[in-house]
Amino acid sequence: MSEAKIYTLFSSSKGNCTYIKHGRDEFLIDCGASARAIENALAMVGSSLADIKAIFITHEHSDHIRGLSTVCKYFGTPVYAPSASLCYIDSHIACAADLRELKSGCAVELFDSAVCPVATPHDALSSVGFRIRVGNEIIGYYTDIGHLSEGVLRGLAGCRRVVIESNHDIEMLKNGRYPYSLKQRILGDRGHLSNRACASLLPHLARHGTESFVLAHLSEENNRPETAFRESFVALLEKGFTVNGERITDAPEPDCVGEIKELRLRVASPCGITELK
After folding, report:
1. pLDDT tens digits along 21-60
2. Calpha distance 271→244 (Å, rounded)
3. Strands, E, within the chain: which ranges?
4. What is the largest CA-CA distance in the chain?
5. In this structure, are residues 3 and 272 in contact, taking their beta carbons and an 8 Å threshold?
6. Can you give the residue range of the structural domain that contains 227?
7. 3-state helix, strand, coil in the chain (%, to 5)
8. Given CB 3.0 to 4.6 Å as the disulfide criterion, which of 9, 135, 241, 267 pairs with 225?
9. Which CATH number does the domain housing residue 208 bear?
10. Domain total for the chain?
11. What is the spatial distance between Cα 91 and Cα 114, in angstroms, rounded to a whole number?
12. How far is the C-alpha of 108 from the C-alpha of 213, rounded, in Å?
């Protein structure tokens, strides 16, 4: 069976949706853009909403469920979400839907994949990230995480490819135009992961087998793609890793578990296709 295909279709504070295909399975993580926009994005990677067998929701905030009502109305796709988020979706969706509860640590078995939700610290009614088994590979998907909890770190352990939040530059946020209360919410333990916190995590993951990273859910107000990329890129180079073909020649050799290959690092486009290779 060929390797899983993973594409972020939308990734920002305005909308989030990721497409994964493995064997007979095609599914989405989040549905935070319009159904039309998602359909157009899927067409660019050779798929369609009619082919999607399941939608996994991280939490109920609008940038993660905006297109859900229309997709459910026209396609009847099963929707999986954590309990409190599921209740919110059920009360706000405009049509009958096939809603199924996610329980943290309990994997949903598809034909050729298994999607295991992991509770995450975020100021939603309930919130999860995902540890996804595709063949012999584990993929990690974690956005909207206020801090690196033990559960998140366990969920990321051993993942070969990872989509991880790098939401904001701390100084940009502190000096920006958001009201003080919103700044405190974002900076809090149930807010969003900063560039600094993300960058501090990546060398640890790389030492334990992660080979490819996509930085996701960047704030369009309090971050820049080049800023997020640079912070994580430098953090990895300084620990001796080769990233996107570059290496610091006098950096120490990384102390890794097993053989380490060249790392790949990309930033997800806010409204364009980014492949996690």
Report:
1. 999 999 999 999 999 999 999 999 999 999 999 999 999 9
2. 23
3. 5-11, 16-22, 25-29, 54-56, 79-82, 99-102, 108-109, 113-119, 128-134, 137-142, 161-165, 212-216, 264-267, 274-275
4. 61
5. no
6. 5-275
7. 30, 25, 45
8. 267
9. 3.60.15.10
10. 1
11. 28
12. 24
